Known about the structure:
Elements: H1 2-25, E1 30-35, H2 36-40, E2 53-58, E3 64-65, E4 68-75, E5 86-93, E6 97-98, E7 100-104, E8 107-111, E9 114-121, E10 139-146, E11 154-160, E12 163-173, E13 186-191, E14 195-204, H3 213-216, E15 220-228
Amino acid sequence: MIGRVFVLIGVVLSVVFTMGCQKKSAPQAKVVKVSSSAVYCIFDPSCAVTFTDSSTAPISIQAGGSSILLSRTFEGKSGTPASGLYGYEYRIDLGKAVETMVDVDGVAKKYTPCLESMTVELGPISDHLDYNGDGEAQDLLYVVTSGGPGNVGIGRIHRWPNRLMMTFDSPLCVGGADHQGDSTYFFGLVSTQPPRSVTASIKEMINPTTALPRLTKNLRHDVAVRAPQIGAEGESDRPGTP
């Protein structure tokens, strides 16, 4: 009996070790920081791109001023690394959004909404480009931290077939009386598929100081964006919303 136990333990450890090695050796999709001039050279020899489609949509958080999500697309020109591909960029701007006062058990309190992540349903994403010029491909998403507006980046991504969740590297909050609201840098990806209109889901963080049912029941905000087409029917494998 003892011998069987040791054999079983040995088999389990062997499987775990093998899986760990396989997981370690598998290429990992990356989020990389770039400058606007450098990344656009991948799409156009002039290192500047012409946006072929753009949209600005409001985000329905409880705040004064304006809260918006910008999305825009462009195409890679012939002879460039992104030739024949479509570029997609997004940016959430809370720079003109301000906190409001809410009633909490008869007491007026400031309510400062902060956003945590954005999830979007999309088609195939190309991950064979080297956006930041470090000599390594497998870059899935780039963040324009130089040469563009913004102060909040992408901390991590979670990828499923036909769905991508991008979590910000710090809370994305509206402004107050003495400070301006946050905005993300432009963040982008590339696909072989042309654009279509989809609904992105933006997740708001729970504010423990104003955790009223009417303020916490709708912490996901649906916003229209442009994203890659999914493609042929039956290709989609949609998981539950994270």
